[in-house]
Amino acid sequence: MNEISDSRAIALFLDKLAAEQGAAANTILAYGHDLRAASAALDGRLALADDDGLRRLFAGWTELVPASLARRRAALRRLFAFLQAEGLRDDNPALAIAGVKRGRALPKTLSVAEVERMFAALDRLLAEKPSPRALRLKALVELLYGSGLRASELVSLPRNAIRPPQPFAIVVGKGGRERMVPLSAAALAAVEAHLALVAPGCRWLFPSRSSGEKHLTRVRLFQLVRELAAKADIPPERVSPHVLRHAFATHMLENGADLRSLQTLLGHSDISTTERYTHVEERRLVTTVRTLHPLADG
């Protein structure tokens, strides 16, 4: 192990986080605060800490709320992974820190049947009145549920972010990070139908109807999704763009997707964020064992 001061280790780590991984400014500030607090608690010997030292450190943070504990755990794990990768440590003692139970449920989601009802309501709307508004709504919902986009990412998509028949979108997420998001055939078809009605010189894929110079707002998207929920006989208060994003993630895991792939699709910079869905993975593993183990019926 090569000795390095805590201040130097933290500074190098945060510089790399900003320069090479494009972390958001708030994330860098929060990680810096957390790591300096950890260093102070260990008398300036955080970079040299072992497994037991980090466990004791973490045990002393019991007064923190679960979300803060989870962030500090993520900061420590990423710091020591960095030190290991740079040859400044031979190990990553932060891996010994147990996961944090957040003590709160996942944001509400929808069942597959409920999502199907929303799409059925969309199809009825299009059959009755295939207006530009209905075609836009179809494209919005297909992208929310089919690709798991954040509301802010969706409404601010430039016109050229999706170019049928290319089966992907280029999305700018948190921290200005770009990612490529696969699109289903249904989403592509819906976007193509909507695009045919967008003025050629318009900057946005989903321009505001009041002014083509601005894109659709998140508030209006929220209203449109709730109106559709009501048409599908689903209590509107249970549905939002974020709920559809969570439904996408939950249903993907239930159908066999792994957490790493889901992390990429959702645009999470840290796998710990995606780990909120491990309850789905655990439930699926239990079902797999009960179904496939040769002594399951014994």
Bulk shape: elongated
How many angstroms separate the termini? 51 Å
CATH superfamily of the largest domain: Intergrase catalytic core
Radius of gyration: 23 Å
Beta-strand content: under 5%
**Structural class of the secondary structure composition?**
mainly alpha
Summarize the structure.
The protein is mainly alpha-helical. It has 2 domains: 6-96, Tyrosine recombinase, N-terminal domain (DNA polymerase, domain 1), CATH 1.10.150.130; 112-238, hpI Integrase, Chain A (Orthogonal Bundle).
Explain this structure to me?
The chain is mostly helical. It folds into 2 domains: 6-96, DNA polymerase, domain 1, CATH 1.10.150; 112-238, hpI Integrase, Chain A (Orthogonal Bundle), CATH 1.10.443. The chain contains 13 helices and 2 strands.
Tags for this entry?
298 residues, mainly alpha, DNA polymerase, domain 1, hpI Integrase, Chain A, 2 domains, 13 helices, 3% strand
Map the helices and strands.
Blueprint: H1 6-19, H2 25-41, H3 51-59, H4 66-85, H5 112-128, H6 132-147, H7 151-155, E1 168-172, E2 178-182, H8 185-195, H9 218-231, H10 241-254, H11 259-266, H12 271-274, H13 278-292
Antiparallel strand pairs: 1-2
Helix pairs in contact: 1-2, 2-4, 5-6, 6-8, 6-10
